[in-house]
């Protein structure tokens, strides 16, 4: 299916998203563009874990997930954040339908071999459910949880990684990663400067040089995976209506990561 744009909304940006963002989503949908939202919920998960006296641990920007943590992740992502997003979208006349990656076995994963506990690496995306939702004129809003290949175990999946896998499975024309920074920033003599366009080779170089660090690393790794699976571009940008509209119209915003090595930033 052509004309699909997958939007990943980070948990750190969720409460900062202005009304105009949701209005832009509705406008884009009403013009016939097919949108899919995959969301995180890190701060809300951290807050609930703190209330329950369950410690939060991270390795290379990824959450370590024990059984107790997984129960909280499911509760917050599926019961709180997902329905909040659907409600906000509906308030602005966007047609939204909330699901999780576990529903219908949309996301199938195996446990990562990294020391992260019950965190899954996506092995398969069944696109039937999001495509069915899209075919009825709704925008799928997807919480990034997955079922194990045996069908019983559930896994926490990093939202960036889930969004990349879903974008690839849907043959999306773009994956937009909405975050709390304007894109990938490079150090300059005075402060930093936005990198408008880059490619996988430069991404690897920036990781080695320490320009890309922390939580941005899994984000760009997910972007590179999506590119390798055929997604033409991944855009990292702020959650402004202007950036969203520009990307959906084929214009530039934030940092565009593209697979063609010739298309590099100045």
UniProtKB/TrEMBL annotation:
Residues flagged as site, Transition state stabilizer: 8, 219
Keywords: Amino-acid biosynthesis, Arginine biosynthesis, ATP-binding, Cytoplasm, Kinase, Nucleotide-binding, Transferase
EC numbers: 2.7.2.8
Subcellular location: Cytoplasm
Recorded GO MF terms: acetylglutamate kinase activity
Catalytic activity: N-acetyl-L-glutamate + ATP = N-acetyl-L-glutamyl 5-phosphate + ADP
Domain of life: Bacteria
Positions that bind substrate: 41-42, 63, 156
InterPro entries for this protein: AceGlu_kinase-like_sf, AcgluKinase_fam, ArgB, Asp/Glu/Uridylate_kinase, Glu/AcGlu_kinase
Main location: cytoplasm
Domain Aspartate/glutamate/uridylate kinase: 4-237
CDD domains assigned: AAK_NAGK-like
Enzyme class, spelled out: transferase
UniProt pathway: Amino-acid biosynthesis; L-arginine biosynthesis; N(2)-acetyl-L-ornithine from L-glutamate: step 2/4
Name of a matching Pfam family: AA_kinase
Role played: Catalyzes the ATP-dependent phosphorylation of N-acetyl-L-glutamate.
NCBIfam families membership: argB
HAMAP family: ArgB (MF_00082)
Protein family membership: Belongs to the acetylglutamate kinase family. ArgB subfamily.
Annotated protein name in UniProt: Acetylglutamate kinase
Source organism (scientific name): Brevibacillus ruminantium
Gene: argB
